[in-house]
Amino acid sequence: MFPPERHHGTILVADDNESSRELLSTLLIDEGYQVICVTDGQQALEKVSADSIDVVVLDVMMPRKTGFDACLAIKSNPATRLIPVLLLTSLNSDNDRIRGIMCGADDFLSKPLNKHELLARVYSLLRLKQFTDELDNAEAVLFSLALSIEAKDPYTEGHCERLSKYSVAVADKLGLPEDLRVAIRRGGLVHDIGKLAVPESILLKPGPLTPEERKVMEQHTIAGERICAPLRSFRHVLPIIRSHHEKQDGSGYPDGLKGEQVPLTARILQITDIYDALTTDRPYRKALPVAKAFEIMREEAKRGWWDSSVLDTFEAVVHGYAPVQPVGSGR
């Protein structure tokens, strides 16, 4: 006979009823899980913030903070919202389940508990957490690779972080939804990851590139898109990576997009990218004053390169004032 399979993971159990806590704890520990027990929703939130938790099991009816309240707080916090939450309830009305769904609960279990159902649901939620952790690890690797490119050139130190910060600020002012703001933050960090495919002799060349070298360099947007494409969570990031060198008049690369064909997220990033390039030291010149940088960018916008309305908003971010929206503006 093979020994029973032992499971791994840390389960947080919150229940104000001592016998219920002991039952849950015994069942889960017998399966090999590490169990942390607390007596109310407030303690649950404190533990989730302080410890590494894989699944949270919350009784609905608890003092201080109910299970609903604790679940909503966990799911509202970007640092904890991906932790699966299982709600335990003796309330079986549709309204209670709808409330739990609105609070972000991942699963429900009715009291009195069925041992096999409890273990099956916890195991299922743990698998979900493992998939989420793997996704986070994959994203972390991409961010590290992107920063390794930046580290090769001392003149671009902090470039990706600045782009990410400025671009998100512009997105906030333009009222973009959260998923696009997240994409822009990530895009600021990984937009040039395709330069991993560019030979260092070209990437770090101090002088002008030959036409052949420029063709190789311009492929980095396509290479970057290909590198990040397997991550489904990057679906809104891919247009930023591919199109942040497009221009409004169609003279950019790699697709020669024009006007509104260039994704708004890419237009935001390219504005911040150009500004950062102009206002930081480069081997061939010193950093330009802010006023001179905007003067150059305004001239380039008049040539049809950049989106003037995005540039207006970006300048408002830099100078800390509210942008003036033209009459009839769609943004």
Protein model, in words:
The protein is α/β, with parallel strands linked by helices. It has two domains: 123 residues, Rossmann fold (3-Layer(aba) Sandwich); 168 residues, Hypothetical protein af1432 (Orthogonal Bundle), CATH 1.10.3210.10. The protein is built from 14 helices and five strands. A five-stranded parallel beta sheet has the order 2-1-3-4-5, sandwiched between helices. Helix 6 packs across helix 12 and helix 7 packs across helix 12. The radius of gyration is 26 Å and the shape is elongated. It starts with 9 loop residues before the first strand and ends in a 12-residue tail after the last helix. The C terminus is likely disordered.
Number of separate strands: 5
The percent of residues in helical segments reads 40-55%
Task: Tell me the number of helical segments per DSSP (H or I, 4 or more residues long).
Answer: 14
Biggest sheet: strands, sense, closure?
5 strands, parallel
Query: What is the overall pLDDT average?
Result: 86
Number of domains: 2
The CATH topology of the largest domain comes to Hypothetical protein af1432
Name given to the CATH homologous superfamily of the largest domain: Hypothetical protein af1432
Distance between the termini: 67 Å
In the CATH hierarchy, the architecture of the largest domain is Orthogonal Bundle
CATH class of the largest domain: Mainly Alpha
Shape: elongated
